[in-house]
Amino acid sequence: MLTQFSNLSVNTDGRYATDSELEFINDYLESMAMRVQTYEKIQANEEAIVQEVDEKMQELNKNDSLFKMDENTKIVCLRDRKNAIKYTSAAMLINDLDRLRDGLLIWLKTIVKAVGYDRFVRTHYPIIQEVIQEYLTPEEAKYILPGFQLDCTILGA
């Protein structure tokens, strides 16, 4: 949304915006209540979501078959998992996946590549998507899942 407003400001410099240029505002306003509801539901269930994702990841990684992590790395991954959920939820709330991609994800991809966690990410984000759907209605999920799919696509590439 912020990116769209910025583009609108640049594209309409010195003139009024057309109806079609303003359409994204109407679209957002129509979805705003559902976005807020989804955001609040994720916020209220964050700890349970994170814990369930962690349990599923540990199950997949029995005997360190996917990746090996020391305790410090596990703490960092837990923090990053919580941040991913928060930032993706915030991007969904304001309908600005471009800002998520261009801000956090491009930077985070550099770190993921540097430490060699591409495989971890390709496993991790689909599990977040699976778990988060257990806490949301299908209508709510349709707003948040594109953000987590973007996370997975960029970070796991």
UniProtKB/TrEMBL annotation:
GO terms for biological process: photosynthesis. Keywords: Bile pigment, Chromophore. GO terms for cellular component: phycobilisome. Pfam families: Phycobilisome. InterPro entries: Globin-like_sf, Phycobilisome_asu/bsu, Phycobilisome_asu/bsu_sf. Belongs to the phycobiliprotein family. This is Phycobilisome protein. It comes from Crocosphaera watsonii WH 8502.
